[in-house]
Design brief:
It is built from 19 helices and 14 strands. By secondary structure, it is α/β, with parallel strands linked by helices. The protein starts with 9 loop residues before the first strand and ends with a strand.
Length: 488
């Protein structure tokens, strides 16, 4: 199967912009791209700044930082340090549920290159670096597009590990610089020192594509779609329980229910908005929501990275959420306490709450321990996701506190990478043998703790695959042979 074949279909509500020409050409080579979008001219720094400010362009990777502020910060840093900048395009899209940047890579790569070229010309940049994930989706398309045109400065394509944290700005800069591809230990601005220690403009693929569209249309025509606060269009990755998985382009302010109807989303207990660092909303809230940062925030959601993952009624929503928290804990860079120890503790707390073995306050406490304390935003985003699930699925949580659960099995609708665990296993303790030596808790502290009496305590849920090796070691070191792994 080719890289293009795995990308989901594209749909549009209203006038297409980023997806213009897809129906006629499929993938737009340079000739088709120029036929659909027309010519583009370089801009001086002041003109590009006015354009970015005029269309209120914000980053489309999740954080929503104003692009004009990034641009101005790089310009000021270059002048202050008397150094040339580097332009970096983040097309890694490491979140499993997100596909929008891959759609642009595989079908409209010249829009990305146009936006990067505009920024590079305005900044008089040293080079352009295009970053894609090592799953290689879209890389061949991007290389083909580069072969069809001349860029204003030397341009390279860099592959980075296809991991959740790969798209974090500091991790991306580290990887390009040949360092371990993890966030730096301290937060620093790439606009001051990024790639090769030069001022660096870093934004995601859709952001540069939107800039290219706006440069052709101008701020007034660009703002003909969207809202006063958020002009233009939005790309959404819709997966989960939707019968039609798709990347959908729509004007900001479009009712979310139109997107759900288009993708044939059935009734369900909740919808994840913004991605794995996002928030859950109820189906009732979704009926009132608009697709925009302001519109989704008004109902308790978030636009984030443009991800919409609805759940169906026949799956356990808390179990689905618990799987994601375990995955996010496993995606930690493992270099700071809130990630290395705090996220596994949060995953354990969620497992305990879902199994009915602990109250929701345990989850709130574990989330509070990591919030605002990490080297990057990963702990904050993970705690936000977990707390949102506890709130939106509160009625289900009450059923789980009885120990009987909601009666629904976890179907795996969250788009997590890899196949479901073919052989789920859980730990079982023979209380007639256990003498409370505590060795097991020292071997795998992320899953086994000692209770107030010094005896091992752990969730009755399956052992996460990334902790399976540690659990096996715990079984082997038990001097009384009280601990064993059994089929879940």
């Amino acid at each position: 199967m080719t890289a293009r074949a795995v990308v989901p279909p594209v749909a549009c509500v209203g006038e297409p912009r980023l997806t213009a020409g897809f129906a006629e050409f499929g993938r737009l080579d340079l000739r088709a791209h120029e036929m659909v979008h027309g010519p583009i001219s370089p801009m001086e720094p002041s003109h590009l700044l006015r354009l970015a400010e005029g269309i209120q362009l914000k980053g489309k990777g999740g954080a929503g930082f104003p692009f004009a502020r990034k641009l101005r910060a790089v310009l000021e840093s270059c002048e202050r340090q008397d150094l040339p900048p580097v332009v970096v395009v983040n097309a890694t899209e490491g979140e499993p549920a997100s596909w929008k940047d891959k759609v642009i890579l595989t079908r409209a790569p010249h829009l990305i290159l146009d936006g990067a070229a505009l920024a590079a010309f305005a900044l008089d940049a040293e080079e352009i670096v295009l970053c894609v994930a090592d799953d290689l989706v879209g890389r061949d398309s991007l290389m083909e597009a580069l072969g069809e045109r001349r860029m204003p400065v030397p341009t390279s394509v860099v592959t980075v590990p296809h991991r959740f944290i790969s798209g974090e700005g500091g991790a991306l800069v580290n990887g390009i610089n040949g360092l371990p591809h993890i966030p730096p230990g301290t937060k620093k601005r790439s606009s001051d020192s990024g790639v090769s220690n030069l001022p660096t403009l870093l934004s995601n693929a859709e952001t540069y594509s939107q800039l290219a569209v706006a440069a052709r249309l101008g701020p007034y025509e660009y703002a003909a779609l969207g809202t006063d606060d958020e002009p233009g269009t939005v790309l959404l990755s819709v997966t989960g329980a939707a019968k039609r998985h798709a990347v959908v382009e729509c004007a900001a302010g479009t009712p979310l229910r139109e997107i759900l109807e288009l993708c044939e989303v059935p009734d369900g207990p909740g919808i994840l908005t913004g991605g794995y660092h996002g928030k859950w909303i109820t189906r009732e809230a979704a009926e009132k929501a608009e697709v925009s940062r302001k519109g989704l925030a008004a109902v308790g959601g978030t636009l984030g990275a443009g991800i919409i993952v609805p759940l169906a009624n026949d799956t356990c929503p808390l179990g689905e959420a618990a799987q994601v928290v375990r995955y996010l804990a496993g995606e930690s860079a493992g270099q700071c306490g809130p990630c290395k120890r705090g996220l596994p503790d949060l995953a354990r707390a969620v497992d305990l709450a879902v199994s009915g073995s602990a109250p929701v306050e345990v989850v709130r406490a574990a989330a509070g321990d990591v919030k605002g304390r990490g080297a990057c935003s990963h702990p904050d985003g993970t705690s936000r996701f977990a707390l949102s699930a506890m709130e939106v699925f509160a009625d289900d949580l009450k059923k789980h506190t009885t120990g009987e659960g909601c009666g629904r099995r976890v179907k795996g609708m969250m788009g997590l990478p890899g196949a479901p665990d073919p052989d789920p296993q859980k730990l079982v303790l023979d209380w007639s043998r256990c003498d409370g030596h505590g060795l097991c808790a020292h071997v795998v502290p992320d899953f086994i703790r000692l209770d107030q009496n010094g005896y091992p305590a752990f969730p009755p849920t399956p052992v996460p695959t990334w902790l399976r090796e540690g659990a096996s070691k715990a079984v082997k070191v038990c001097p009384e042979l009280a601990l064993r792994l059994t089929k879940a």
